[in-house]
Specification:
It is built from 20 helices and 22 strands. With 578 residues, the chain is an alpha/beta fold. The radius of gyration is 24 Å and the shape is globular.
């Protein structure tokens, strides 16, 4: 069918639904809602005129579909709640109440929000993290909820295409009888640092992640805070800042402490827009971290702690698992350097297979745009960040005594995906969204992609992927040779499933021959054109992006961080995507 995907943003869920519909053989195009009102409605009407869709699917929509559209076209709305749930903050309510299961409903647009007939619904479990405080909303949205939404949308589309299915009326408020639950306001998120325990504080922070953040006051100014990882050792006067680590700040509660990973100053009336950045960077700039110590955490193979750590290392027999996770997948200069140090430590261990990632949720999105924006000299920080990424990628590419595996439990994009391509094998969980391009940020890109991407997919396909700047699903990526294995498991199972597969790989009698072949291939490649050549060529163009008179990258970075809506749906999305 011809399907128009209409959404308020081309976010991870919208991208996933679009690529999965295309993979099912449907001809899809995208229309972005530009903030509601006459302009947004006109954009939708023009998209309908242009594409003549047989069906409209709205995976993520914050404004109502106009009556002249829903009365003439079947519009399927994805609501992040079970049948009967209504209102704009479904996930926030579910997480704040500590629910262990939730759902997604695909319903038909009508005049009243979330009140149309139901075409499909899918339930999902909400995992409870072992450290307490619940799962972060953004993590749940990208994973369990996205899995359920995908299943429900594909079922609804199949039912519509059959022509035989009749949707059922929506129940009247089975979650909260007789009412539509209101927007989850900041008043409900407020933390009483002198009265609430660690679990309660962590749950409030994680419920607000990554949007809108939790509004709180520090040093006489309000900040939107993010994070929520409990701490098992540090203690202090409730509300005080105790320590920093890897860009995060530890803050005391009445019975322990939690880590704040990011912060954004609240915009003052008439003031410039503000952007989210590492909490330590933001609070240090305000003078709030004077006397607050930086504390480390040791990287040991079998040491478990309840604390904030972006990198953890474990061993299973002959397998080393270097697990890393960064908020939103953004890797700052310091993150890259610390991961490189951890990688070198992992390489020193007596293992045969070294796995990178193996964590649920986002693998990496590359350089940290928020940290760059917050730096005194963004161009200089951009240059430092990309060189630190390149150092890490080079170390992986030149590892010749172990088989390396990049295990993507979730989405990856730009330099983060190219980081994965440095490994010998790339495994990705079904449902992840991959974006192998840099163009949308006005960058040429580095991370040795001009070496790794063409050798996987060929030069023509590499050019197409990087210039068209469209997302890929794992199945298509497997067909192209971009990845080597699709992991068909739940998000919670990713770490264990990857460890099991890696142990099988390490026990394979053919592994020594593979390593010998790897060393020979690297020598031959270096003989034809040294890795240093690729790096120099890429960085010459990146230097121009960062320091050149055309500051498109800086403009696009700010627009991205400040969530500036485009003036129209980008042309790359408006055409039919087969």
């Amino acid at each position: 069918m011809r399907i128009l995907v209409h959404a308020s943003a081309f976010n991870s869920l919208t991208q996933r639904i679009t690529v999965e519909l295309a993979h099912q053989g449907h001809r899809t195009a995208v229309s972005l809602d530009l903030g509601g009102g006459p302009r947004g409605d006109a954009e939708l009407r023009e998209a309908i005129r242009r594409h003549r869709p047989e069906l409209i699917v709205a995976p993520m929509l914050t404004s109502a579909v106009p009556e002249d559209v829903w009365s003439r076209h079947v519009c399927l709305i994805v609501h992040p709640g079970p049948p009967g749930d209504r209102g704009p903050s479904s996930l926030d309510w579910a997480l704040s109440e500590g629910r262990r299961s939730w759902g997604v409903t695909v319903l038909q647009a009508v005049g009243e929000m979330d009140a149309g007939d139901i075409w499909a619904a899918e339930a999902f479990d909400i995992p409870e993290h072992a450290d307490g405080g619940g799962i972060a909303k953004s993590d749940l949205y990208r994973n369990e909820l996205a899995d359920a939404a995908s299943a429900a949308v594909l079922r609804a589309v199949e039912r519509y295409a059959s022509g035989a299915y009749r949707p059922r009326p929506a129940p009247l408020g089975t979650v909260l009888p007789g009412t539509v639950r209101p927007y989850f306001r900041q008043e409900r998120r407020r933390i009483d640092w002198r009265g609430e325990g660690t679990d309660a504080v962590a749950r409030k922070l994680r419920t607000a992640d990554s949007s809108p953040g939790l509004l709180d006051e520090l040093g006489g100014r309000e900040y939107y805070l993010h994070g929520g990882q409990p701490e098992d050792e540090l203690r202090g006067e409730p509300g005080t800042l105790l320590a920093t680590r890897d860009g995060a700040v530890c803050r005391a509660t009445v019975d322990g402490a939690v880590w704040l990973t990011a912060a954004r100053p609240r915009r003052t009336p008439g003031g410039p827009p503000t952007a989210k950045a590492p909490a330590a960077t933001v609070l240090a700039a305000a003078g709030l971290l004077r006397g607050v110590p930086e504390v480390g955490v040791r990287l040991r193979p079998h040491h478990k702690r309840q604390t904030w750590a972006t990198v953890r290392y474990a061993e299973h027999g002959s397998v080393g698992l270097l697990r890393f996770s960064y908020p939103g997948g953004a890797m700052s200069t310091g993150d890259c350097r610390r991961l490189l140090s951890a990688y070198r430590y992992a390489c020193s261990r007596p293992t045969r297979v070294l796995v990178l990632g193996a964590h649920r949720d986002v693998f990496s999105h590359g350089i940290h745009l928020g940290a760059i924006e917050a730096a005194p000299d963004p161009a200089r920080e951009s240059w430092a960040n990309i060189n630190a990424m390149d150092d890490l990628v080079e170390a992986i590419l030149t590892t010749d005594d172990k088989l390396t595996v990049a295990a993507l439990g979730g989405n990856a994009a730009a330099g983060g995906l190219m980081l994965a391509l440095a490994a010998d094998e790339v495994w990705v969980r079904a449902g992840a969204v991959l974006n192998p391009h840099y163009r949308l940020m006005g960058l040429h890109g580095s991370e040795y992609w001009t070496y790794t991407l063409p050798r996987r997919v060929g030069p023509e396909q590499a050019l197409r992927l990087t210039t068209e700047a469209l997302p890929l699903g794992p199945e298509r990526a497997l067909e192209l040779g971009l990845v080597d294995r699709v992991l068909r498991c739940t998000p919670e199972r990713v770490p264990d499933h990857v460890a099991e597969l890696a142990e099988t790989l390490a026990a394979d009698a053919r592994l020594p021959r593979r390593l010998a072949a790897k060393r020979g291939a690297l020598r031959r490649a270096q003989g034809r054109r040294p890795l240093a050549w690729y790096r120099a060529e890429e960085l010459a163009l990146m230097h121009r992006n960062f320091y050149g008179p055309d500051d498109e990258y800086h403009q696009l970075r700010r627009a991205f961080l400040h969530k500036v809506r485009p003036g129209a749906t980008p042309e790359r999305l408006r055409r039919i995507v087969a």
